[in-house]
Amino acid sequence: MKKTKLAVWKFSSCDGCQLSLLDLEDELLEIAETVDISYFLEASSRLKRGPYDISIIEGSISTPHDIERITAIREKSKFLLAVGSCAVFGGVQALRNYTLPGEYQQVVYEHPEYLSSLDASSPVSAHVKTDLELRGCPPNKRQILEVLTACLNAKKPDLPSGSVCLECKRKGIVCVMVSKGIPCLGPVTHAGCGALCPAHDRGCYGCFGPKETPNTASLSAWISGKLGMSREDVLQSFRHINCYALEFCLESIKHEPKDSSERPEPD
Amino acid sequence: MHFIIERENLDRLLAALQEHGRIIGPRITENTFGHRDIASSQDFPAGWTFEQDGGFFRLRQRRDPSLFAYTVGQDSWKKELYPPRSRLLSLQKTESSFSVTPEKSSSEKVVFFGVRPCDLAAIQIQDIILIQGPFADPEYSRRRENAMIVAIECTQPAATCFCASLGTGPGISSSSDYDLALTEVLDDGLHYFLVRAGTEQGRAVIAGLGLAEAPEQNIIRAENLVQEAASRMGRTMDQKGIKQLLYDNHEHPRWDQVARRCLTCGNCTQVCPTCFCHSVYDRVSLSGKEAERFRSWDSCFLLDHSYIHGGSVRVSSRSRYRQWITHKLASWIDQFKVSGCVGCGRCITWCPVGIDITEEIQAIRQSDERGCNA
Ligand code: SF4
Ligand code: SF4
Ligand code: SF4
Ligand code: SF4
Ligand code: SF4
Q1: Distance CA B274, CA B374 (A)
Q2: Which of B84, B265, B287 sits opposite A163 (nearest CB)?
Q3: Do B50 and B62 form a contact (C-beta atoms < 8 A)?
Q4: Contact A226/A172 with Cβ under 8 angstroms?
Q5: Domain spans of chain B?
Q6: Pairing of strands B190-197, B180-187
Q7: Do A53 and A76 lie in a common domain?
Q8: Are the CB atoms for B50 and B82 separated by under 8 Å?
Q9: Measured distance CA(A74)–CA(A127) in Å, rounded
Q10: A52-58 vs A77-83, strand pairing mode
Q11: Are residues A110 and A197 in the same domain?
């Protein structure tokens, strides 16, 4: 039987998602034996031409060239899996979507005139159809393995829905928000990480993005009213890694300073 | 018959119980509270209590050495009897077919030490569903058989407790299903426990220790402490006609109000000691040669919970909150001849935004009585 051809592609990103894949140390050999890793620059310089059975996409679409590449990759991939906050929601670099075009570039680069980038950083799904998306910054390597396994065995992948709280409770972690007053985005954040942050005694910062029907307004009212979080901090909580995810974006806008002159300059 | 055991002899009781199995009880570790292994009476949270309210839980120091002057924390015994996640079976591919290996059920003997009256009632409710019901769960039954229950009456109720109004606490009735029941008394420098046995196993433990029968005045003292606790309950829930109340108010505007606050996070269902919903899922190895089937706790606050062909039935938060409370307090009675709520208050404390089941019922009841339900 012909091996399944797998390709891994990088767009605007930090490489963390690819590292999650490489971090599957115990399974990596078996993966390499089972599938034909046809394109994975971070792992091997042996490159094969498409078409590919599975393409894993890391990173957001942030340059005109990115749009050309993702369109071409979509055409030669049967199954397109977007992984990580950048590919799924536009990533932390989508913070620039909240500024005037070129505002960050002026601050960061000495010669912004050499850059060719889009005004907004956007998710893969804004440009081509994705077949499945795995959230997280970084994504959970177990979930990536689960999707690969499911593809190879024609099985429905087991990916939890609902809030991080459900995973938190099943792990028996005592809620950090209720027992310590630490603000936590777990109740509005999509499950999948296994409640990593509460397990280490800190609040979830929402890296898996909004869960199904997230009630961000109610949580904001609680963390500001009861837990005393400042308006600016509530804004920052939602305008963070998944700042361009619809529900988090809308919530963050609600906490913008009322008077536009109060708006902080990007530093 | 009541017996008496002094605080300084409590370790003798623990030693006797250790003969039966691993003791699990209330303990503070790493600044949090939960059910953990107990090696000696030093492990109990001496001099601690809890402050609880909607969405609020804090450990507080007391000025006495009491070991059990608090109520329930986040953990319930459901975690031991009906684990959050368990493997049901494994499958191996063979040459022409596959073989099935069912999961070996737990044979470990355990002692649940410090089971509160509400939790004792909750265990009995889960027994009705998971042992006596038409869908008996063999693993639950095994774990239940292997567990010895040492219950303890409550003398320091929390602000979130309402067992008194449901008749599930703060005392333990002799018809309850416990092996031993304790009451802690601190009096003028005296620190002792009253002990009762509910089973042969419990009686054997008492006999083995050679405990003295409790004098009448100590029994009365303990009963008074429990009665006082009943009058200091932080919350109440009026059970009168509750089933019909909820059935009659499916379209009450209160559901919209609570839905604006509810995060549909599902915490309430996870901490509730009687909720039993679960989902089943499969894991397959990369090679496809091995597979495993798991079960894990589920919640009616998930869209998936009501997913049928074509989509989810309960899409709005309103309908999901209504399902939770209507099942707990109304249709549960039709299904199992008992309420699904024991008044432990966990769903109030551990709701991240402090939604209060007693307050919701009260609001619906008040407007129902005024006859202005929609
Ligand atoms: S710690 Fe956070 S994720 Fe865990 S239950 Fe509490 S609010 Fe939810
Ligand atoms: S707890 Fe929240 S921030 Fe932490 S890894 Fe999970 S989703 Fe990301
Ligand atoms: S509904 Fe709430 S108060 Fe009632 S038993 Fe469940 S967690 Fe306890
Ligand atoms: S209240 Fe919800 S989670 Fe609990 S048993 Fe009923 S349907 Fe299941
Ligand atoms: S009532 Fe509270 S704990 Fe339950 S789902 Fe709603 S917000 Fe979560």
Answers
A1: 31
A2: B265
A3: no
A4: no
A5: 3-231, 242-369
A6: antiparallel
A7: yes
A8: no
A9: 10
A10: parallel
A11: no
Q: Which two tokens stand for residue B303?
A: 């869209």
Has this prediction a pTM greater than 0.80? yes
Residue A233: beta bridge partners? none
Answer for the pair B59, B17: CB distance below 8 angstroms, yes or no. no
Is residue A125 one of the residues assigned to a domain? yes
Protein residue closest via CA to atom 5 of ligand 1 = A165
For chain A, the residues whose C-beta falls within 8 A of a C-beta of chain B are 27, 30-31, 34, 145-146, 148-150, 152-153, 155, 158, 161-163, 165-166, 169-172, 174-175, 177-180, 184, 186-188, 212-215, 217-219, 221-222, 226
Query: Is B286 in contact with A148 (Cβ distance < 8 A)?
Result: yes
Token duo for residue A208:
């898996």
Matching residue, tokens 């209330």: B26
* Chain A partners within 8 Å of B296 (Cβ): 170
Task: Please choose, from the candidates A205, A225, A191, A183, the residue with its C-alpha nearest in 3D space to the C-alpha of residue B261.
Answer: A225
Do A250 and A148 share a structural domain? no
Please report, in tens digits, the pLDDT of each residue of chain B (374 residues total): 999 999 999 999 999 999 999 999 999 987 789 999 999 999 999 999 999 999 999 999 999 999 999 999 999 999 999 999 999 999 999 999 999 999 998 899 999 999 999 999 999 999 999 999 999 999 999 999 999 999 999 999 999 999 999 999 999 998 999 999 999 999 888 999 999 999 999 999 999 999 999 999 999 999 999 999 999 999 999 999 999 999 999 999 999 999 999 999 999 999 999 999 999 999 999 999 999 999 999 999 999 999 999 999 999 999 999 999 999 999 999 999 999 999 999 999 999 999 999 999 999 999 876 654 44
- Mark whether A35 and A148 lie in a shared domain: yes
Please count the CA atoms within 13 angstroms of the CA of A164 that sit on its side-chain side.
29
Query: How many domains does one find in chain A?
Result: 2
Alpha-carbon distance of B194 to B6, in angstroms, equals: 9
Distance CA B268, CA B349 (A): 9
Q: Which domain holds residue A85?
A: 4-153
Residue A106 is assigned to a structural domain of this protein: yes
Residue A154: CB atoms within 10 Å: 8
All residues at 6 or more sequence positions from A143 whose CB lies less than 8 Å from its CB, including other chains: A134, A136, A159, A192
Q: What are phi and psi of A151, to 5 degrees?
A: -60, -45
**Structure token digits, residue B96:** 């022409």
Contact B45, B62 (CB under 8 A): no
Residues A105 and A131 in one domain: yes
**Contacts (Cβ under 8 Å, ≥6 apart) of A136:** A83, A84, A85, A143, A192, A193, A207, A208
Q: Which two tokens stand for residue A223?
A: 């963390």
Whether A267 is covered by a domain: the verdict is no
Q: Is A197 within a domain?
A: yes
Residue B144: helix, strand or coil by DSSP?
Answer: helix
Pairing status of strand B48-53 against strand B56-61: antiparallel
Whole-angstrom distance, CA of residue A183 vs CA of residue A54: 39
* Two tokens, residue A158: 């087991």
